[in-house]
Write a structure and sequence with these properties.
With about 500 residues, the protein is of the alpha/beta class.
Length: about 500
């Protein structure tokens, strides 16, 4: 009987892929921006033809969300992202200041290892592949086990398109034998320069333990505050559209609503009129116990399910027209499932006396999972908006817009991204909407514009003490060697 060790197969494949990627990236590093742009454009055009097919496949394979909404995300990345990428220079001379005689040279970081979530497998995979190649990097994917077939098919299409335009073989690749051991080997390999982990918290410890720079887009738990000056009808509509999109699987979606007490009744009526169902305490309790498993991990079987389906699983009934389940809450704590991220159309609902107390509640919610990347405020009061922007431990603050579409750069002018860096309390090297500019380092070039003599005169016009302590008796007889000693001593003081 032959016994196949999948871990060993995966580890061996990981080593081969990483080494091949390193060699391919050496060739890729010599490509000018114009050639990279041609490859990226062809990749986007080819994968766009399969956007609908891949949306259906991902929904069927993962059993998460709605394929129609996944199709929207796929088309957004295939069409909107490439338009933004055209405007960017990432490699070679990317900036030149003729007046000050400086230059910035973009240098690819090397080999990137990418982990993608089962919740947004296709759009995230396309996005990472495009920004990696745009910036001259090789990228190796470790597909999510729950979406490996769909991610593999998407990457086969992208690889065929890219290599057909001259991309070196091995510069874009993926693990076929996917195991945790193989993924860890890939992340720890000496060829790997950076890891992009989007929405795979189960691999976060290993990601950070690799010792490599990490870009992490993790759990959101973002609140939305409806302040008393807000357009209530529009705010509620934005929240419902965002939280029910793809049945709530996007981490950037609103997880809680915090409402000014003076408008709370009006806000509740507006939610109810637009398809939200406010659960009783008993109903909320029945549903709440299902969110997390005995080991504390989220229950994957609730992810991306509709509101009526969630109610049925919890043992109560709601009309099929209900889009959103809402639980009124008072406190934030680790034992309260409604204080945490919920990747389904369920919201916690808090009422606070004023914007100052609402601010405190939002901070509590953001730090409860310590990875908060998005907060929304609905308000017409610019002073309150600015206070929220200044005080929140979060990667991005969105104003008067749906969280999902604002965070990904669809309804705002933020960079169009499917990886959103965490805030100051999060994990990773950036809180940006991750772009190709996060995948390069910038080499600074400066031309000499002042002589040592000129520098000395500028910074030491009257420093007699320093001059008298030197070997030469007078400043007017200083030779070049002495000027250099003066400059060194000054620099040592700074």
């Amino acid at each position: 009987m032959n016994i196949i060790d999948n871990d060993l197969l995966s580890i061996q494949e990981a080593r081969i892929l990483a080494e091949n990627a390193r060699e391919a990236q050496k060739k890729l590093a010599a490509f000018p921006q114009e050639k990279l742009d041609v490859i990226v454009e062809h990749m986007a055009e080819e994968i766009d033809r399969h956007a609908g097919e891949l949306a259906k496949l991902s929904s069927n394979e993962t059993d998460y969300g709605k394929w129609q909404d996944k199709y929207i995300k796929n088309r957004f990345i295939c069409r909107y992202l490439p338009e933004k990428l055209k405007e960017m220079r990432c490699v070679g001379i990317i900036k030149e200041d003729y007046l000050n005689k400086t230059m910035d040279v973009g240098v690819p970081i090397g080999v990137i290892v990418a982990l993608c979530p089962a919740t947004n497998p296709v759009s995230t995979t396309i996005y990472k592949a495009l920004i990696a190649i745009k910036s001259g990097n090789a990228i190796v994917f470790s597909p999510h086990p729950r979406a490996r077939k769909t991610i593999g098919l998407a990457l086969d299409i992208l690889i065929g398109a890219a290599e057909g335009c001259g991309l070196p073989e091995g510069a874009l690749s993926y693990l076929h034998d996917v195991t945790p051991a193989g993924t860890i080997e890939l992340m720890n390999h000496t060829a790997t320069s950076l890891i992009m982990n989007t929405g795979v918290p189960g691999m976060l410890k290993a990601t950070v333990g690799s010792g490599k720079p990490v870009i992490y887009g993790g759990s959101g738990n973002g609140p939305a505050f409806i302040e008393r000056t807000a357009d209530i009808a529009q705010a509620v509509q934005d929240i419902i559209v965002s939280k029910t999109f793809d049945n709530g699987v996007v981490s950037a979606a609103e997880q809680s609503v915090v409402v000014d007490r003076c408008i709370a009744s009006e806000v509740k009526r507006e939610f109810q009129s637009k398809g939200a169902y406010f659960m009783t305490e008993e109903e909320a309790g029945k549903l709440g116990v299902l969110f997390y498993q005995a080991d504390g991990s989220p229950n994957p079987e609730l992810v991306g399910k509709s509101a009526p389906e969630l109610a049925r699983r919890a043992g109560f009934q709601v009309p099929e027209s209900v889009q959103l389940l809402v639980s009124e809450q008072k406190y934030v704590n680790n034992n309260n499932p409604y204080s945490k991220e919920k990747l389904c159309p369920v919201l916690a609902y808090y009422i606070e006396d004023d914007w100052i107390h609402a601010c405190e509640k939002c901070i509590e919610l953001l730090i409860s999972e310590r990875n908060g990347h998005t907060l929304v405020i609905h308000s017409r009061d610019e002073d309150v908006i600015r206070q929220f922007a200044l005080k929140k431990p979060v990667g991005r603050v969105l104003v008067n817009t749906p969280a999902i579409f604002g965070s990904m750069g669809a309804s705002t002018n933020l960079f169009p991204a499917m990886t959103l860096g965490s805030g100051s309390a999060g994990v990773g090297i950036t809180s940006d909407n991750v772009s190709p500019m996060n995948l390069i380092y910038i080499r600074k070039v400066g031309y000499g514009v002042r002589t040592v003599e000129e520098i000395t005169k500028e910074i030491l016009p009257d420093d007699k003490t320093l001059v008298n302590n030197l070997e030469q008796p007078s400043a007017d007889k200083l030779d070049l060697q002495l000027l250099q000693r003066i400059l060194k001593e000054v620099m040592d003081r700074l």
